[in-house]
Amino acid sequence: MISLCAGIALFSLFISAGNKPGPGPTYLQFKIPAGWPKPATDIFAKNRLSEEGFQLGKKLFYDGRLSKDGNFPCAGCHQQFGAFASYDHDFSHGYNNTFTTRNAPGLFNLAWMPAMHWDGGVNHIEVQPLSPITAPNEMAENLDSVLRKLRKDTTYLRLFKAAFGTPEINSQRMLKALAQFTGSIVSSNSKYDKVQRGEASFTPGELNGYNFFKANCASCHKEPLFTDYSFRNNGLAVSPFLNDYGRMKITGNKADSLKFKVPSLRNVALTFPYMHDGRLYSLGAVIDHYRSGIITTQPTLDPLLVNRVTISNKEKNDLIYFLNTLTDTTMTHDPRFSEKVTYFSH
Amino acid sequence: MKNRFLSIPLFLLTVFSLSGFQKARTSIGQPGLLKITFVNTVKGKPLQMDSTVYTNPFSETYSVRKFKYYISNVAVAFSDGIYKEIDSYHLIDESKPASLSFIFSAAPNRYHSFMFMIGVDSLKNVSGAQTGPLDPLNDMFWTWNSGYVMAKLEGNSPQSKVVNNKVEFHIGGFSGEYNVLKKLLLNFPAGISLDIREGKTSEIIIESDLDKWWQHPNDLKISDHPVCTTPGELAKKIADNYSNMFSIKQVINN
Q1: Overall average pLDDT of the A308-326 stretch
Q2: Is the ipTM of this complex over 0.95?
């Protein structure tokens, strides 16, 4: 009794396969948007997606108790209205007035992402939360303490039981539930998507921008995910404060010096500031970097950028028009991903 | 408890092993049990954490505060096949006596060697959140460069010039040039076999000699390398050394 949603409806990403009446989780089928590639690996293959698991993951995502002092839930730095990035922040704020050392990425379409972090250091969505939870300049907690807090909450005991069959709360279950929530966030209903589906059309400026994009940007920011998930050096100067050499730290290979993951450009108008350290505050500044700012003497500079990119002022404007069509307000307003706010409580 | 087994004279084992050739059986009736026990030593003497000062082959002195390592993919080999432990992952932690032994059911047969991997196989390093011995709560999982710490040795040495004279080896890396994973096959001594019988528990006692971390094939002085906490060339060299620390101490057939 799978209920099929014909065409593209706003909230059709989850198709209930309510084939399990009575107790036990209600399993869900993760839906791949029409025309999109299948993820290289199925993140739900060993973490079967269920409504109960998703709801538990959502509660954890919005729960400050995952941080040392209660002030830093995942959602503190990954805000839905900012496409689950830190809106208008180059670095996010961590415990005890600290800064992170990289710009928080938007969390969407993670089911397609082969490796997490700007340097690809985290190889599976399920183990991703371990980094921010334990980092002293983020949530500053330790796993054992988080689990002890959760076990004291009878609501969690009930939710873990609903999701996993027994009330046992352990790190694996917590991490799998978080992955069910974050991995379910899909952004596929921007104006660009509607144009692809024939439900809308670009303005002349947007269309010019799209054509320019396809000719000059899409080899790295590959449609439809707007990234090829590769690691590349796009010619930024090394920040003397951070001395961040990116992927080289993970691989130990000099050829990876200054390489960072190509970010998706979906929702790019919401995820400013830009680059791994948030140094560029506007789309215009990013385009200016590609046409005149690239440091062409870095040995690991991406071969596609050695001559910089020739972009006229008109093309720049058109490109910005196009990039704004990648904003998906369906996702940023989807109540399914929102913290349930109870007004007038206590 | 393990000392009781250690006291069994070796000739008794030899008697068992001479009790006749048994053709390899692949079908299982009643399974037997196989207990594996690790005895951590320094040059053959049981490791004493914290208090005892040891001397390495370069006359450098050190004490040990933490000593733990993963053993996975355990199997025993008979004449024409192997018997594998299912879901075989164990964290041997000197500070937790219960972790030094594990037991699993095995097909009745006569076996001639013991096989295992030092570390956690690459697949489990890329398969997301795990539990039990592989739970990140065990403090053996890197969160910024995903992967398990396969072996951990921590202590102090006056020859270490880093903060508080620390010696800290967190050895990992599961892929590429500096993959530290090691598969070992230890043959039982000549004339000795492991006999698993229905409803009985036999045991293999493995000795691991921490002194092997410093030498063969790589000379690694504490003064040169007091710390190794990332995958890479040094981690590989240390793993090359520690892969020689295991030996069969005893086989006990019941």
Answers
A1: 98
A2: no
